[in-house]
Amino acid sequence: MIRVIFFDFGYVLASPPPGLDPRFLYLDWDGMAQIAADPLLTPALRPGIGEAQLRTFFEREYYQRFTGPEASQLEAPRANELMRAILPRVFARPLTNGQYERLLFHLDTMKYMRFHPAARRVLSALSNLNYKLGIISNMILPGVLLERLLRSEGLREYFGPVITSSETGYIKPHPRIFERALFAGEWRPEEALMVGDTYRQDIIGARTVGMRAVWLNCRGEPTAQAAQNPPDAIIQSLEELLTMDL
């Protein structure tokens, strides 16, 4: 019997506007100009560091550290640890907590995400049916940014564990990120259902640890790839969860 339902975040609960450069789902590249002009941050920048240098720095020292492993060993640094370790290369002195928060504000990609109209209704309905809910999501910025977005939208109350690759150090479909989610609520794999939009990351990852999986194929991935290891169901919208026999 299913006790807990985990959701991917991007393209399942919320999506960016059409046409947004996919790189902006990882870092807000427009934020580099804001960092370079922010009066709270500019006094701490090393001489000669401006928008162009910040773009090159975050591309090489941060972005590539996460996007490379996603296609290979599926392990990555924890976001806060990496960020704190590399910032001395562009800042002349350690950032205060307030400065660090301002930096994250400029880099935050959650500003682009818009929750799907049905998300609140589906989450409320599943909660009323006594399912526990959680999130398992790949992201490269600190997971606290996702937590803040959920709180600002009044949705955090629906979720128990919010598990991100940037906090665990494991990128979906690595089994350990799914195991961390199960451990958070002491659930057995057969008691858990994963709802995700990406076959390789969400469906394969969940099934590897014994979870059930529903493929929300809203972006039209080819279903032939699932022939040898199919999900428990393929749906096109979140609302279909409410009519399924879970």
Short description, anyone?
The protein has 9 helices and 8 strands. With 246 residues, it is α/β, with parallel strands linked by helices.
Structural class comes to alpha/beta
By CATH, the topology of the largest domain is Rossmann fold
Radius of gyration: 19 Å
Pattern of helices and strands: EEHHHHEHEHEHHEHEE
Fraction of helical residues? 25-40%
Uncertain stretches: none
Shape descriptor reads: elongated
What is the arithmetic mean of pLDDT? 95
Cα end-to-end separation:
8 Å
Any overview of this molecule?
- Helix content is 35%, strand content 12%.
- The relative contact order is 0.17.
- It has helices spanning 31-37, 51-67, 79-86, 97-107, 119-128, 144-152, 165-168, 175-185, 199-208, and strands spanning 4-7, 14-15, 114-115, 132-137, 162-164, 192-196, 212-216, 233-235.
- With 246 residues, it is an alpha/beta fold.
- The N and C termini lie close together (8 Å).
- The mean pLDDT is 95.
- It is elongated.
- Helix 1 packs across helix 2 and helix 1 (31-37) packs antiparallel against helix 4 (97-107).
- It is built from nine helices and eight strands.
- The protein has a six-stranded parallel β-sheet with strand order 5-4-1-6-7-8, sandwiched between helices.
- It has two domains: 4-15 and 112-243, 3-Layer(aba) Sandwich (Rossmann fold); 27-108.
